[in-house]
Amino acid sequence: MFGMFRITNPLSGGLLWKIPWKLSTPQKLRQRRRLRAVDNVVATVDAALAKQGETLKALERWKEEMPTEAEMLPKDKYTMFDRKAKRYRKGIHRLPKWTRVSQRLNPPGY
Amino acid sequence: MSAYFRITLHRSAIGLPKRTNGVLMGLGLRKRNQVVFHPVEPQFAGMIMKVKELVRVEAVDRALTKAELRAERRPDPGFYVERPRAEAQSGLALAMATARASGEAVAEVEEVRL
C-alpha cells in the first residue's frame, strides 16, 4: 500500500500524462502578459538609450529579429517546434523554465 | 542630463544558468523585488538585455537613496493628525511678533503665510 510499490496511477499500468497537452486559458493569458513585459523592458531600454544618443547591438538585433507580442501568431505564442512531435508542434510549457526564457521564433514553414 | 535605469528583480533566477545569475550579481540584484539604479549606458543596457525576462525596468531622472526607497514602500498610515486652526495661526502670529520685535524679515513671514 505504501512505500516503493504503492498503487499509483502510473504504476498500475495506466497511461497518465502528467503535463497537460495544451495550455489552459489563464496560462495563455499569463504567457501573453509575460511576452508583453519583455517587450516593455526592451522598449524602455531602447527609448532611454536613444535619448542619450547611444545604440546597442544586442538591442538592434532583438528589434530586427524578434516579433512583438502583438505581431506573433497564437501558434507561436503557445506552441513550439519539435521534430519528434506529431505535426511538429508541442506545447510551449514543455520547454524547461518556460516562464523565464524567451522562445518566440520557430523554423519557417512549421 | 543624467538618467538612470531603475531595475527591479521580478522573477528569481533559481535554476537558471550560472551566467544569468552572474549578470544579476553584476547588476547588484540579490533577491526578488530588490531595486537598483544604474546610469543609462550601453554597458548596463546590455546587462538588462541578458536578464530581460526577470526584471522590470523604468528610466528615471535620478537614483533614489536607500531611505527614499524605504519611504516608498511604507504603507499609507490611514490617518492624519488634525491641528486646531487657532494653534496654527497663533504660531504664525508669534513668528510675526518676534520678527517685528527684532525689526527684520516681516516680509518673509508674510510670504510664508501666503
From TrEMBL, chain A:
It is found in: Mitochondrion. The keyword Lyase does not apply. This is Large ribosomal subunit protein mL60. The lineage of its organism: Eukaryota, Fungi, Dikarya, Ascomycota, Pezizomycotina. Pfam families: L31. Its main location: mitochondrion. GO terms for cellular component: mitochondrial large ribosomal subunit. GO terms for molecular function: structural constituent of ribosome.
Automatic annotation (TrEMBL), chain B:
The keyword Ribonucleoprotein applies. It holds the Pfam family Ribosomal_L30. It is found in: Mitochondrion. Keywords: Mitochondrion, Ribonucleoprotein, Ribosomal protein. Residues 5-55 form the Large ribosomal subunit protein uL30-like ferredoxin-like fold domain. Transmembrane segments: none annotated. Signal peptide: none annotated. InterPro entries: Ribo_uL30_ferredoxin-like_sf (IPR036919), Ribosomal_uL30_bac-type (IPR005996), Ribosomal_uL30_CS (IPR018038), Ribosomal_uL30_ferredoxin-like (IPR016082). One of its GO terms (molecular function) is structural constituent of ribosome. GO terms for biological process: translation. The keyword Ribonucleoprotein applies. GO terms for cellular component: large ribosomal subunit; mitochondrion. Belongs to the universal ribosomal protein uL30 family. Component of the mitochondrial ribosome (mitoribosome), a dedicated translation machinery responsible for the synthesis of mitochondrial genome-encoded proteins, including at least some of the essential transmembrane subunits of the mitochondrial respiratory chain. The mitoribosomes are attached to the mitochondrial inner membrane and translation products are cotranslationally integrated into the membrane. This is Large ribosomal subunit protein uL30m. It comes from Podospora appendiculata.
